[in-house]
Amino acid sequence: MKSSSSILALFLCSLMILPSDHAIESPQYVVALLATDFEIRVYKNSTWMSAPVRGTSFEKSTKEGFHRLYQFIHGANLDSSEIDITSPVMTSIAQSSQGSFKSYCVSFYLPAKFQGAPPQPNPELNLKLDEQRAECVAVRKFSGFARDDNIDQEMEALVASLDNYTSSRIIKNNKNTFAVAQYNASYHLSRRLNEVWLKVGFPGCK
Ligand SMILES: *[C@@H]1O[C@H](CO)[C@@H](O)[C@H](O)[C@H]1NC(C)=O
Ligand SMILES: *[C@@H]1O[C@H](CO)[C@@H](O)[C@H](O)[C@H]1NC(C)=O
Ligand SMILES: *[C@@H]1O[C@H](CO)[C@@H](O)[C@H](O)[C@H]1NC(C)=O
């Protein structure tokens, strides 16, 4: 019951977001390396609002976290500010080395206008302000819907591409912590863009 109502809420809210006549803000980056099947990006410091979720499913956790963030951007904050939607919605996944325990955090990039002084979320939403330091990430794009049954494979494929890339030295972060970026509202069934992200060290990048 609870889960079907939050799925409905997500569906309803996704009908209202991403107006096509309106430029949607995203965090700015520079491409440090463009390979055939991955790229390395340098992101600047940026401020996000994040919803930690205790769960076992990527899809369910993303829906639950996004639902809390959706309320925040639609006025559930101490100034009752309306905040424009941005993309992507990020889900960070941390798992134990045996894979037995996972935790999720769903994050919303704050528009430039709110980067310095974001409105405080209503406390019951249990959101936290996330100041991301500048970082280098290796990115692999994929289409369709990001799901529990494909994100691990996409991540493995990214790691394989990085291991296979010998032209310069790429230092991978532990792959037990990675993130999935989703750029499109759920009602878009085709031409969808998602990415898996892994932090890396790379010459000329930090
Ligand atoms: C980025 O954030 C770090 C730590 O919060 C800070 O030391 C650094 O000055 C910031 N850099 C820029 C360019 O704002
Ligand atoms: C590894 O890299 C080589 C040379 O760039 C490429 O031809 C090959 O398809 C790559 N293999 C995989 C598994 O990515
Ligand atoms: C999905 O998002 C990407 C990145 O913003 C965009 O290029 C693409 O056109 C979007 N797809 C649809 C169906 O709107």
Automatic annotation (TrEMBL):
Keywords: Signal. The keyword Membrane does not apply. Gene3D superfamilies: Regulatory factor, effector binding domain. The keyword Signal applies. It comes from the Eukaryota. Residues 1-23 form the signal peptide. Belongs to the HEBP family. This is SOUL heme-binding family protein.
